[in-house]
C-alpha cells in the first residue's frame, strides 16, 4: 500500500502489446475487445471504433479532445447506452444486449464524470450498497433479518476496512451529501471496490477534485492495479495520465487515432493533430470554448516537456 | 331546432351531479350514502301497471312518426315500446329513479337521425310521476346511414376541440420547455380566462369583443403575476423540479376552490353560446361561434408560430427551451424569456378557456381541470417541451376524442384518448415529434 | 353561541376514524413510492378505486367470501401496477406521473360510465357488500366507548380492523426499509444510474416498490368503503392530491409521518370546517354562506401543500439533518 505523504514513482507495466503499437493493436492479454462498435445520435457519429483491446492488469488511459466520444464509449461498454452495431466482449463473454446491472455483476464497475454519491444515504450505507450478492436485497427475505444479518455484518466490516483505507472512516455516519467533491470521488471509488471488481472504469476521476486530494486519489488508483485489478480511465489531466498510465488510447471524433506507451503517444503526430487540428489557424485567445483552450495548453505544455 | 337546447342540459346535469357528489363525498361525514330504496318501499315492481311513466312524442318536420322503437333500461329494469300513429309513446317503470331511454335509430325513416347523437337520454323523474322525454330528430341533410358524413362531422368537431386544446397545450409546453415545470395549475389559468369573460360580459354587460380582450389581458396578467410572485422566487431558492410540480398541484387546488368560492358551483352560459347551427356545409352544421372559434385558434396559432420562428425573442425562447445554461451563457436573459413565456402561456390559456366555454358549452369553476389531463396528454404525445409537438398532439387528442364517439359511449370518450397516451409512451416515449434523449 | 364541545368532539372522532386509517395507509403506500423510491405516482386514487370496486364487485356480482374479495382487489392492483410500470419505469420520472394520473382517470371513467352499469352501478355506485365483514365481527351488539368515542359494534369493528391493517403495514414497511432491500430502494431515489452501476436491477426494484405501495393503496381503498358506499366520484385526482398533502405534512420518507400526518390532517380539517360552519351559522362571517365556508378548507389544503413543500420539505417527522440537503 502506498503512503500518501511521500509520493512514490509508480512502477509501469510494460510489454502489453503484440507487434507494432498503433490504433487497434493486439494485446498480450486483453480483458476487453471491441469490434466495429458504432453509435450515432441523429446524423452525428459519436463513436465509431473499428477495433480496440484493453490490456489486463494495467492502467489504461482513454484521452482525447472534447466531443471525441470517450464518455459515450464508456457508456456503451458498461451497458448504459446501446450501440447501433458492433461486438464487444469482457473476459471472453459478449456484452451485446447485456443490461448495465448485469455488466456490473460480471465484475466491470464504473464511476461517473459527475459523481453519483447517494446524497441522503450515509457514507456507510453507500458502501454497503456496493456489495454483491446480498440475500437481504430480496423483498421477501428482507423482512426476516436472520436471513441476512450475518452477511450484513461481514459487509459492514469490509466497508469499514475500505473506508479506513480511503480515510473516510470518520465520516461513515454522515450523509454523503455533506462530503466535499473530492471526498465524493473517493467514496465512489471505494464503493466500487465493495464488489471486488476485475475491471474498474473511472470517468474523469480528477475532475473537480481539490489539489490536496489528487495525490491520494492517484495512489488509490495505483493501488487498484497492485491488487490485481485492471483500470481504464478517462482523463483530461495530461500530467496524471503520464504519471500513472501504463497504456494510452487516444480518441478523436469517435475513432481511435493512436495507442501506445504514454511517452510515445505524446509524440504521435496524429495526437497533436487531434488536439490542435481544428485550431491550427485560429487565435487561441479568441476561442469561445474555455475547456478546449485548456486542453490545448495542456497538450502544448506536454509536447514541450517531451522534446 | 329550438329544442336542442333543452336536451343539452341533461348531459350538463350529469356533470353537475358528479360535481355535487365529489363535493359531498369529500366532506368529512362518513355517512353511508344510500339513495336507492329511499321511500318507495311499497311499490310492487312485478305489477303490469306501473306508477311511474316516461312518455314522449316523436315527430319529424311536424309529422308524427309511427313504429319508432323506444327502449328503457336502468335499475335492473328493461322494457321496449313503439310509437303509435300519432307518434306518441309511453313506458311504465317500477321506481322513481333515473333511467336510460334509447331511440332505435334503425326504425327511423331514411335520412332522419337523432340530433347530436342524443339517441340515448338519461332521464330522471321530477316532482311528478310522469316525465316527458323528447328525442329531437335531425334535418333532412343528415343521413343516418351515411357513415362517412358521421365521420366528417366528428372530424370537424374534433378539429375545433383540438385547436382550442392546442392553445392551452402550447403554453404548457413552452413553460415546461423553459423551466422544466409540469404546471398543474394550467387548468386554473384556462378556467380563469372563461371566468373573466363571464364577469365582464354577463355581469358587467360589456360587449363581447371587449370582454374577450379584457379577459385575455387579465389572463396574461395572471401569468405574469404567477411568475413574478411565485415561480421566480422559487427558482431563485433553487427548489427542485418535483417539489415545484407539487407546489403547482397545491396552487391548482387552492385556485380552483377559490373560483368556486366566488363564482359558485353552477354552470353559466357566455353570450352567444346558444346560437343556432345555421351554417350548412354538406352534412355539417355549424354555428357562427364554431366558425369564429376555429378561425381565432388558427390565427392565434399562426401568430405564435411566427413569434417562435421569426422574432428575436421567439428564437431566444426556443434556445432557452433547448438548453437553458447554454442560452444564458450566450447572453440571453433567461429570466426575461421565462417571464414572457408565462405571460404568453397565460394569455393563450385564457383564450383557450373562453373557447372551451363555448365548446362545452358553459362556464364552471372546474372546467379547466376537466381538460387538464387532455392538455397534458397532448403535450406528452407531441413530445415534452416542443411547441409544435404540442400542436400536433392536441389535434390528435381532439380528433381522437370526437371520432371515437362513433364507437365509444360518449361518457367514455376521454378513456380512448388517455389510453392512446399510454400506448404512445410504450412505443415512442419521446413523443411523436420529440427527439431521443441522450444518456450520459 | 358556538357549540365548542360539538366541534372538538367531532374533530376528536377523526383521530381514529376508518377514513383517517384509510388515508394513512394510502399515504404509507405513497411514502414507499415517492418518499423512499422517488416514484411519482399520481394514481393512488386509482389503486384505492381498485380496492373498493375489486372488493365490492367480487362480493356483489360473484358472491365471493371476504378473503377472496380482498385477494381479487390485491390481484387487480398488482396487474394495474404492472401495466403502469412496464412502459414507464424505464423513462423519466415525470412520465410515470402523467401515465399514473391518466390511468387512474381511465379507471374512474370506466367505473362511472353507464355502459357497465350492471356491474359497477355507474355514477350511483355500489353498496350492500358489508355483510361478510359484519358477520366476522366478534364484538357483541351494543354501544361501547366514552365521550366522543362512542360507537356501535360494527363501527368499533371496522375501526379495529382498519387500524390493525395500518399498524401491520407500518411494521412491515419499517422492517423492509431498514434491510438491504430498503437500502437499494433509497439508493434508487438518490440516483438510479449509480445503483445500476453497482449491479442492482433497478427496473425490478422500482416495479416491486410500485406494486407494494399500490397494494397498500388497494387495502386502503377497502378500509375506505367500510363506513360508506362505493361511489366513483370519490376517486377523483383530488383524492391523490389529498394523500400527497398528508404525506408531505408527516414527512415523505418516514413510517410514522403518513399515519400521524393523516390524523393531524383530518382532525384539523374537521375542526376547521366545523368551526367555519358554526361561525357562519352564528353570524360571525356575514359575507360568507355555509357552502362557501365548506369550500374554504380545500383552499386551505392547497395552500398548505405549497407552504409545506417550500418551507418544510421533510415534513413533521423528517430528519432535521436532511433539511440542508433536501431541495
From TrEMBL, chain A:
The protein's GO terms of the molecular function aspect are:
ATP binding; ATP hydrolysis activity
Q: Does the keyword Transport apply?
A: yes
Which keywords fit this entry according to its UniProt record?
A: ATP-binding, Nucleotide-binding, Transport
* Sequence ranges assigned to domain ABC transporter in this UniProt record: 32-278
Q: Which domain of life is it from?
A: Bacteria
Q: Which Gene Ontology terms of cellular component type are present?
A: plasma membrane
Pfam families named in the record: ABC_tran (PF00005), BCA_ABC_TP_C (PF12399)
- Claim: Transmembrane is one of the keywords in the record: no
SMART domains attached to this UniProt entry: AAA
Name of this protein: ABC transporter ATP-binding protein
Amino acid at each position: 500500500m502506498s503512503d500518501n505523504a511521500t509520493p512514490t514513482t509508480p512502477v509501469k507495466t510494460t510489454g502489453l502489446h503484440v507487434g507494432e503499437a498503433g490504433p487497434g493493436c493486439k494485446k498480450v492479454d486483453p480483458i476487453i475487445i471491441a469490434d466495429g462498435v458504432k453509435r450515432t445520435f441523429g446524423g452525428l457519429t459519436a463513436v465509431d471504433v473499428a477495433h480496440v483491446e484493453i490490456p489486463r492488469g494495467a492502467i489504461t488511459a482513454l484521452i482525447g479532445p472534447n466531443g471525441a466520444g470517450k464518455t459515450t464509449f464508456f457508456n456503451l461498454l458498461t451497458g448504459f447506452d446501446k450501440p447501433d452495431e458492433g461486438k464487444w466482449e469482457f473476459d471472453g463473454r459478449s456484452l451485446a444486449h447485456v443490461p448495465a446491472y448485469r455488466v456490473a455483476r460480471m465484475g466491470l464497475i464504473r464511476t461517473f464524470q459527475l459523481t453519483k454519491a447517494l446524497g441522503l444515504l450515509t457514507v456507510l450505507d453507500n458502501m454497503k450498497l456496493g456489495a454483491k450478492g446480498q440475500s437481504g436485497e430480496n423483498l421477501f427475505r428482507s423482512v426476516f433479518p436472520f436471513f441476512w444479518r450475518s452477511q450484513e455484518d461481514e459487509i459492514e466490516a469490509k466497508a469499514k476496512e475500505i473506508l479506513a483505507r480511503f480515510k473516510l472512516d470518520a465520516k461513515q455516519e454522515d450523509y454523503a451529501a455533506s462530503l466535499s467533491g473530492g471526498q465524493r470521488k473517493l467514496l465512489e471509488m471505494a464503493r466500487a471496490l465493495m464488489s471486488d471488481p476485475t475491471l474498474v472504469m473511472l470517468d474523469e476521476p480528477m475532475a473537480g477534485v481539490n489539489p490536496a486530494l489528487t495525490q491520494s486519489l492517484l495512489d488509490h488508483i495505483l493501488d487498484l492495479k497492485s491488487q490485481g485489478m485492471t483500470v481504464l480511465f478517462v482523463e483530461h489531466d495530461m500530467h496524471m495520465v503520464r504519471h500513472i498510465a501504463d497504456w494510452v488510447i487516444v480518441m478523436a471524433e469517435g475513432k481511435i487515432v493512436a495507442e501506445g506507451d504514454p511517452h510515445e503517444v505524446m509524440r504521435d503526430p496524429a495526437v497533436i493533430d487531434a488536439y490542435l487540428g481544428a485550431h491550427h489557424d485560429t487565435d487561441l485567445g479568441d476561442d469561445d470554448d474555455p475547456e478546449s483552450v485548456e486542453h490545448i495548453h495542456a497538450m502544448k505544455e506536454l509536447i514541450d516537456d517531451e522534446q | 331546432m329550438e329544442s336542442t337546447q333543452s336536451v343539452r342540459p341533461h348531459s350538463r346535469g350529469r356533470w353537475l351531479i358528479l360535481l355535487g357528489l365529489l363535493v359531498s363525498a369529500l366532506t368529512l361525514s362518513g355517512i353511508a350514502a344510500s339513495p336507492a330504496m329511499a321511500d318507495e318501499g311499497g311499490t310492487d315492481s312485478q305489477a303490469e301497471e306501473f306508477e311511474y311513466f316516461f312518455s314522449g312524442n316523436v315527430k319529424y318536420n311536424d309529422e308524427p312518426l309511427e313504429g319508432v322503437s323506444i327502449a328503457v333500461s336502468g335499475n335492473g329494469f328493461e322494457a321496449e315500446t313503439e310509437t303509435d300513429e300519432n307518434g306518441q309513446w309511453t313506458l311504465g317503470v317500477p321506481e322513481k329513479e333515473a333511467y336510460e331511454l334509447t331511440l332505435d335509430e334503425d326504425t327511423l325513416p331514411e335520412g332522419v337521425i337523432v340530433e347530436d347523437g342524443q339517441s340515448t337520454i338519461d332521464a330522471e323523474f321530477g316532482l311528478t310521476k310522469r316525465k316527458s322525454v323528447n328525442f329531437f330528430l335531425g334535418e333532412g341533410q343528415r343521413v343516418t346511414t351515411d357513415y362517412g358524413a358521421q365521420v366528417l362531422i366528428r372530424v370537424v368537431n374534433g378539429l375545433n376541440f383540438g385547436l382550442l386544446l392546442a392553445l392551452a397545450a402550447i403554453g404548457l409546453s413552452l413553460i415546461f420547455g423553459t423551466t422544466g415545470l409540469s404546471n398543474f395549475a394550467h387548468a386554473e389559468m384556462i378556467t380563469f380566462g372563461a371566468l373573466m369573460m363571464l364577469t365582464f360580459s354577463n355581469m358587467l354587460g360589456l360587449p363581447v369583443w371587449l370582454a374577450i380582450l379584457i379577459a385575455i389581458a387579465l389572463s396574461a396578467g395572471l401569468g405574469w403575476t404567477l411568475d413574478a410572485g411565485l415561480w421566480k422566487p422559487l427558482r431563485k431558492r433553487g427548489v427542485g423540479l418535483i417539489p415545484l410540480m407539487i407546489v403547482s398541484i397545491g396552487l391548482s387546488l387552492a385556485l380552483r376552490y377559490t373560483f368556486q368560492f366566488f363564482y359558485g358551483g353552477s354552470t353559466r352560459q357566455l353570450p352567444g353560446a346558444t346560437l343556432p347551427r345555421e351554417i350548412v356545409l354538406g352534412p355539417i352544421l355549424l354555428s357562427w361561434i364554431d366558425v369564429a372559434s376555429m378561425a381565432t385558434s388558427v390565427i392565434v396559432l399562426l401568430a405564435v408560430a411566427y413569434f417562435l420562428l421569426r422574432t428575436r425573442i421567439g428564437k431566444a425562447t426556443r434556445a432557452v427551451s433547448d438548453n437553458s445554461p447554454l442560452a444564458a451563457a450566450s447572453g440571453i436573459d433567461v429570466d426575461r424569456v421565462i417571464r414572457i413565456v408565462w405571460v404568453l402561456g397565460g394569455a393563450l390559456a385564457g383564450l383557450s378557456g373562453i373557447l372551451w366555454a363555448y365548446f362545452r358549452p358553459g362556464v364552471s369553476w372546474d372546467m379547466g381541470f376537466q381538460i387538464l389531463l387532455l392538455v397534458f396528454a397532448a403535450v406528452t404525445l407531441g413530445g415534452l417541451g416542443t411547441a409544435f409537438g404540442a400542436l400536433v398532439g392536441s389535434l390528435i387528442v381532439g380528433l381522437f376524442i370526437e371520432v371515437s364517439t362513433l364507437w365509444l359511449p360518449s361518457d367514455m370518450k376521454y378513456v380512448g384518448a388517455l389510453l392512446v397516451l399510454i400506448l404512445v409512451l410504450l412505443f415512442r416515449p419521446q413523443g411523436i415529434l420529440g427527439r431521443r434523449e441522450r444518456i450520459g | 353561541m358556538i357549540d365548542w364541545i360539538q366541534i372538538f368532539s367531532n374533530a376528536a372522532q377523526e383521530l381514529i376514524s376508518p377514513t383517517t386509517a384509510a388515508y394513512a395507509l394510502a399515504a404509507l403506500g405513497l411514502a414507499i413510492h415517492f418518499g423512499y423510491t422517488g416514484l411519482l405516482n399520481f394514481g393512488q386514487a386509482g389503486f384505492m378505486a381498485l380496492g373498493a370496486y375489486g372488493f365490492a364487485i367480487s362480493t356483489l356480482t360473484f358472491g365471493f367470501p371476504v378473503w377472496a374479495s380482498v385477494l381479487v382487489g390485491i390481484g387487480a392492483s398488482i396487474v394495474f401496477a404492472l401495466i403502469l410500470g412496464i412502459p414507464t419505469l424505464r423513462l423519466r420520472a415525470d412520465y410515470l406521473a402523467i401515465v399514473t394520473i391518466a390511468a387512474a382517470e381511465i379507471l374512474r371513467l370506466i367505473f362511472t360510465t353507464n355502459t357497465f352499469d350492471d356491474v359497477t352501478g355507474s355514477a350511483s355506485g355500489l353498496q350492500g357488500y358489508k355483510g361478510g365483514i359484519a358477520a366476522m365481527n366478534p364484538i357483541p351488539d351494543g354501544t361501547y366507548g366514552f365521550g366522543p368515542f362512542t360507537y356501535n359494534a360494527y363501527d368499533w369493528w371496522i375501526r379495529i380492523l382498519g387500524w390493525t391493517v395500518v399498524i401491520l403495514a407500518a411494521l412491515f414497511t419499517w422492517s423492509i426499509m431498514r434491510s438491504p432491500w430498503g437500502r437499494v430502494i433509497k439508493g434508487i431515489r438518490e440516483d438510479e444510474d449509480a445503483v445500476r452501476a453497482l449491479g442492482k436491477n433497478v427496473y425490478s426494484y422500482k416495479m416491486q416498490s410500485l406494486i407494494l405501495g399500490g397494494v397498500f393503496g388497494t387495502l386502503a381503498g377497502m378500509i375506505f368503503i367500510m363506513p360508506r358506499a362505493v361511489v366513483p366520484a370519490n376517486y377523483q385526482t383530488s383524492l391523490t392530491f389529498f394523500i400527497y398533502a398528508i404525506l408531505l405534512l408527516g414527512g415523505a420518507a418516514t413510517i410514522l409521518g403518513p399515519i400521524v400526518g393523516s390524523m393531524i390532517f383530518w382532525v384539523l380539517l374537521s375542526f376547521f370546517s366545523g368551526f367555519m360552519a358554526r361561525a357562519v351559522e352564528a353570524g360571525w362571517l356575514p359575507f360568507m354562506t355555509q357552502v362557501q365556508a365548506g369550500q374554504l378548507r380545500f383552499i386551505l389544503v392547497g395552500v398548505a401543500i405549497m407552504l409545506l413543500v417550500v418551507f418544510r420539505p421533510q415534513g413533521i417527522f423528517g430528519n432535521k439533518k436532511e433539511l440542508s440537503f433536501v431541495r
